[in-house]
Specification:
Blueprint (H helix, E strand, L loop, with lengths): L1 E3 L4 E4 L2 E4 L2 E5 L16 E3 L2 H8 L2 E7 L4 H10 L5 E6 L8 H16 L3 E5 L3 H9 L16 H14 L4 E4 L7 H17 L4 E7 L5 E3 L1 E3 L5 H18 L14 E4 H4 L4 E2 L4 H13 L8 H6 L1 E7 L11 H16 L6 H13 L14 E2 L7 H8 L12
Parallel strand pairs: 3-15, 4-15, 6-7, 6-9, 7-8, 10-15
Antiparallel strand pairs: 1-4, 1-5, 2-3, 9-13, 10-13, 11-12, 14-16
Bound molecules: guanosine-5'-diphosphate-alpha-D-mannose (GDD) and magnesium ion (MG).
Length: 396
């Protein structure tokens, strides 16, 4: 593929935040040559490079009762060499939707000779393994893993660790376009291939997110992402004393990380999860607060924001959903020890004017599932390993 080279990078302590890089062309051919790296402001990322990163990557698909056709399309879009890990919280009573997902995945894996895992979020063995490893904050009062995409992500990334992958990427199951999924994962690979640090994150910015109201309108910025990014940028501006609009992917649900970085971050419940990852990176490695990770400070953390070519076509879930997303995201910024008073006031005024909060209310503190590095990951792996074939999509 051809992608813009990272022409502008802002630094926040040891965090390097690259400005948005657009995908210029989805394919760059086998033979075409361009002048040396960056000479034209465009980088060619060869198929070989992309494939070598895909091979080291697990793609986690969180799924809760999404239409089977969408789920199937999403799986079909994940590059063959990636390990697919489906973490499902779909219903099992009456109509067993999880069973249907499992059958669909099983069939696809058979036809295409690929390996995949599928795990139900309420699986008792996985819950036991988490408890055994000291991850009880992930469990509810019944000893099962709590509901939520973030909790599903944690299961996914521990399974990626078990499979000895180096990178983990996330794609939602409610996407109408398998081709977009293919592109997201290729963009993850492209980002990692440009990273100079083993601690790297790639966040996807959608080219357009079309709206269907009578006709089709190719909308670029939603109100939630605009507001979240603005508040993030206010925090960074205050801390660095230089006004900036570098953050353009505060909410990015589609994102990927090196496992080395993923292990160090907490995973906030609900829609706070992706914004909290960013905030935690700034808190832990931004240089303002003390860091306990000397190795990371030395290498630095690299953030890539990559703008796709494909539009994002997904299930629309209504206004309440948007307000919840805004509140979840901004609560992470509001409650960060890095957040200054001006940014706090901006957050409160945005939340009240967009009716996500009543006046005088404060955003609730996000619930943080602790970073996997704080538990005994090896204990988790040892506990699950003998049962791993139960989660393989290729079993009978
Ligand atoms: N395993 C699991 N467990 N998956 C879940 C759960 C759960 O409890 N709840 C939701 N999911 C799955 C959904 O099925 C979907 O595939 C994905 O997680 C995202 O959930 P949505 O409810 O569709 O979120 P969204 O589309 O409103 O928001 C997306 O984009 C936001 C940024 O624009 C998500 O990716 C958000 O996390 C993100 O902040
Ligand atoms: Mg969705």
């Amino acid at each position: 593929m051809y992608i813009e080279s990272p022409r502008y990078t802002e630094r926040f302590g040891s965090v390097r935040i690259n400005d948005v890089q657009k995908v210029v062309a989805l394919d760059s051919g086998l033979k075409s040559e361009i002048p040396p790296y960056g000479a034209m402001g465009v980088i060619k990322i060869s198929e070989e490079t992309i494939k070598s990163f895909e091979d080291k990557m697990a793609i986690v698909i969180p799924n809760k009762n999404e239409k089977l056709k969408l789920f199937e399309g999403v799986v079909s879009g994940v590059p063959h060499d990636c390990l697919v890990i489906v973490v499902s919280n779909s219903q099992r009573e009456d109509i067993d939707r999880f069973r249907m997902e499992k059958d669909t995945l099983n069939q696809m894996c058979r036809y295409t000779y690929r390996q995949a895992f599928i795990i139900h979020q309420k699986d008792t063995l996985v819950a036991e393994a988490m408890k055994h490893a000291g991850y009880s904050k992930l469990l509810d009062e019944n000893g099962l893993i709590r509901d939520g995409k973030a909790e599903g992500m944690v299961i996914g990334l521990l399974m990626a660790k078990l499979a000895e992958k180096e990178y983990v990427g996330f794609v939602d199951a409610d996407n109408y376009s398998p081709g977009a999924i293919l592109e997201y994962v290729r963009n993850y690979a492209a980002g990692f291939s440009m990273a100079n640090s083993p601690y790297a994150m790639v966040r996807i910015l959608w080219h357009y997110k079309p709206k269907f109201s009578g006709g089709l309108y190719f909308k670029k910025w939603g109100r939630v992402s605009e507001t979240t990014n603005r508040c993030f940028n206010s925090l960074v501006s205050f801390r660095t004393s230089f006004e900036t609009n570098i953050i353009k992917t505060g909410n990015a649900g589609e994102h990927a990380m090196s496992l080395k970085l993923a292990e160090l971050l907490p995973y906030a419940s609900g829609y706070a999860v992706e914004p909290q990852e960013l905030i935690s990176i700034f808190e832990q490695f931004g240089g303002t607060l003390p860091s306990s990770h000397i190795d990371v400070m030395k290498h630095g953390v690299e953030l890539f924001q990559i703008e796709t070519r494909n539009p994002h076509l997904h299930e629309e879930k209504g206004l309440d959903h948007l307000q919840e997303m805004l509140l979840g995201g901004l609560s992470t910024v509001y409650h960060s020890p890095l957040c200054d008073n001006e940014t706090k006031q901006l957050i409160l005024s945005q939340l009240t004017s967009q009716k996500a909060l009543k006046s005088k209310q404060k955003p609730p503190k996000p619930y943080l599932n602790p970073p996997p590095c704080e538990i005994d990951i090896q204990k988790f792996v040892k506990f699950i390993e003998p049962h791993v074939k139960n989660y393989s999509a290729l079993q009978e």
